[in-house]
Amino acid sequence: MRGLDQMRDVTIAPLELNASGADFSYVLRLDADRELVLQGDAGYSKKSEREQASYYFSQPYFKVSGSITIDDKAVDVSGQAWMDREWSSQPLASDQTGWDWFSLHLNATEKLMLFRLRQKDGNDYCSGNWISRDGKTEQLASGGIKLTPLSLTAIEGRKVPTAWRIAIPSRSLMIETVPLNARSWMGTSFPYWEGPISFGGSHRGVGYLEMTGY
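Now predict its structure.
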């Protein structure tokens, strides 16, 4: 991934993104006409009611164009993308077991970022950011977000919640998500699940889900 000559720091765009493997490759251009979104309090994103936090920004407005080649056949593609950058010296407390994180492109052009830090006592910490079509943001309090697993997928001896119901009463949002590939397991030295999702209900759209600690 590299910045092109016209790249602006406030948008981190335009970018060129290339990748290749044994039987695929892609060349993509990412453009954005809106500035980065600072998560949390001006970029300071709390992860518990104690001292756990990170610095966190997103670029949810990427417009993508380019081509994907599979088995030597090239296909022109276009769509949306979302980039996160987050860093912390202490992301989890000792009684937190992992997280469930969503980035959602709503068909009505709003964006939504949500996460849940799971705690051993069941008092999970949630946070979110509703991003309006004009770029304005509204932080969502933990008590105003309800994330409910709907189904589990057995992967590598684990049971992973790959379908979810998400409710945000203050925004009249009630949706259910489904994965594109329920077996999107990353068997790395730090194993976790991540992959694209779609959703329907009060709102429709596409997004991405990442889960750790299962």
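The radius of gyration is 18 Å.
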